Amino acid sequence: MSASVKTLDKTGWSVAALRREARHNGWKAKAAARKVWEASEAGEAYRDAYNRHPLCNALDAVTDESMERSRAPRYRLKVRTFPTGHAEAVVTTEYPDPLKTLDRAIRRDLRHLDFKWEGGRDENVERAVRRASQDVRLKCKAMGVNSLWTLTFRENVTDRQAVLRCFDQFRRRVVKVLGDWRYIAVLERQERGAWHVHLATHALPSRIVQGDVRVKSWDVMRAIWRSAAGEFGGNFDEAKKQKRWSKGARPIQGAGAIARYIAGYVAKDMHESELGQKRYSSSRNIEVPPAYTAVFDAADETMRALIELAYAGVGERVASTWFNSNRGVFFIETDDSRSFRPPPSEPVH
Predict the structure, then answer these.
(1) Beta bridge partners of 334
(2) Is residue 330 part of a domain?
(3) At what angle do helices 121-143 and 15-38 cross, to 10 degrees?
């Protein structure tokens, strides 16, 4: 008597749950494909090249005592201060592994021979999401943005390239009106499939001089966007830092909050769209200041001591903090807005 196979009902699953299942299935498929590759001639050739690599036996002469010291946990403190007065600091816990470090170095040299997985979209996306989100976040802070613009269409525009063409026309015309205008723009797709554009930038003046006439800046921007959108129709909106941009309990303030907000749209777009597409656009010559970095042995310092050092490194206008005990990561940032009000203090455990 054969047992009946039941199909799992996924109709009530969330997007996050479906993504986790897809990632898990991808890992299983990759493991199976790699097992087949390792048994092939290509896998044998790779193992031979790996064993003949000059670094393959580089750690054989290292004593056990030296290896133990090299594996000792350490903390990395990174502090970055921006021209606007905004600052951020992060403390991360690291567990060095010389063998894994050496293995990665060899695999980088032999990547042209290594196993190539065609179905690894999720892994590539996650790496790209982290890079793009951090890039956008740091550029927003370097600019000292204090305003969020939203460009929408009256029609249900689902063609991504058409949206980018409209935005390019808008961008060119705004530069002619405002002169030295800087921005970071990302796309967001609504549930109905329509695209719209979010821009992190600086707040508009109440009036703009056009010829010899002073006109409302919103009217000018709206007219420019509608002209660029053409037959699609459109609308322009600006949300300044005093307004609420989300459903959170507190209003979003300062460049740090806007940076997180706009970086979230980058991540969302990258998870929902195909690889190889342009994820965001920005003005040129946005210089992100370098970070001060220091490394401490865990035997000499504690996480609590470095958290206190991070507080001292960013100053008193603390806007937000978070601590991930599982990963051993602490983050803190300040607020550069004039309307800053410190959040309720929370103890660090």
Answers:
(1) 318
(2) no
(3) 130
